[in-house]
Amino acid sequence: MTEKIGVLGKKSAQRTQRSGVERVVNAPLPTVYGEFRAIGYLDHDRGDEQVALVYGEIGTDDVLTRLHSECLTGDAFGSQHCECGDQLASALRAVVAEGSGIVVYLRGHEGRGIGLLAKLRAMALQAEGLDTVEANLALGLPVDARDYGVAAGMLHDLGVSSVRLMSNNPRKREALVRHGIQVAETVPLLIPPCENNITYLRTKRERLDHHLPHLDAVAHLS
């Protein structure tokens, strides 16, 4: 009898196990860019805590949107190895200038999904001459392990059906469309390169298909 109850209990737990994203909190977030709402979500599939920064009355169609992958070194420390921190700031400024919009900040995306320590190991290999793709592969890791299903789930929850996507990465557009969010327009988010990130950016253009036409004007950088 005890064994039967245990089996039934397991089946009941399986039936009630949640999946997908759940909205948990909506809090005002004043920033140096403007007054946002920080809408927090729990990704039941991966266990990650996520946040969408919403500015103004967003509506449902053609919402100016950025899907920003977590980057501790760029977002918090101002690393010039990448352009992530500048892209985040530019996206926040853009939605404020627009009067409404969303910046979805995606945790678990560090280093294109390989994690912080692995990203730092890859950066060490890049300092020795490998590019960002070669470094990940040398560590036995995928070039890009990010999944955007949670971002689409958050946008669905916010009532968004189509976006104007601030991105240079065609894979983000493809992923949103695959998950039921239409992309009315891709809005370039081009950051002037510097000597420390020009090789990284060229690799993103040449090997990861990012649309970075502004790099043609800075051939003098090493």
From TrEMBL:
UniProt keyword annotation of Hydrolase present:
yes
User: Which residue numbers delimit the GTP cyclohydrolase II domain?
Assistant: 22-188
Note on cofactor:
Binds 1 zinc ion per subunit.
Q: Which UniProt keywords apply?
A: GTP-binding, Hydrolase, Metal-binding, Nucleotide-binding, Riboflavin biosynthesis, Zinc
- The source's superkingdom equals Bacteria
What this protein needs as a cofactor is: Zn(2+)
EC number(s) stated in the UniProt entry for this protein: 3.5.4.25
Q: Where is the active site?
A: 144 (proton acceptor), 146 (nucleophile)
Q: Where does Zn(2+) bind?
A: 71, 82, 84
Q: Give me the Gene Ontology terms describing cellular component.
A: cytosol
Q: Which InterPro entries match?
A: GTP_cyclohydro_II, RibA, RibA-like_sf
The reaction(s) annotated as catalysed by this protein in its Swiss-Prot or TrEMBL entry are:
GTP + 4 H2O = 2,5-diamino-6-hydroxy-4-(5-phosphoribosylamino)-pyrimidine + formate + 2 phosphate + 3 H(+)
| EC top class, as a word | hydrolase
**Residues that, per the record, bind GTP:** 66-70, 87, 110-112, 132, 167, 172
Check the record and name the NCBIfam families matching this protein.
Answer: PRK00393.1, ribA
Q: What does this protein do?
A: Catalyzes the conversion of GTP to 2,5-diamino-6-ribosylamino-4(3H)-pyrimidinone 5'-phosphate (DARP), formate and pyrophosphate.
Tell me which HAMAP family the record gives: RibA (MF_00179)
Name of the featured protein: GTP cyclohydrolase-2
**Which species does this protein come from?**
Streptomyces regalis
Lineage, opening ranks? Bacteria, Bacillati, Actinomycetota, Actinomycetes, Kitasatosporales
The encoding gene:
ribA
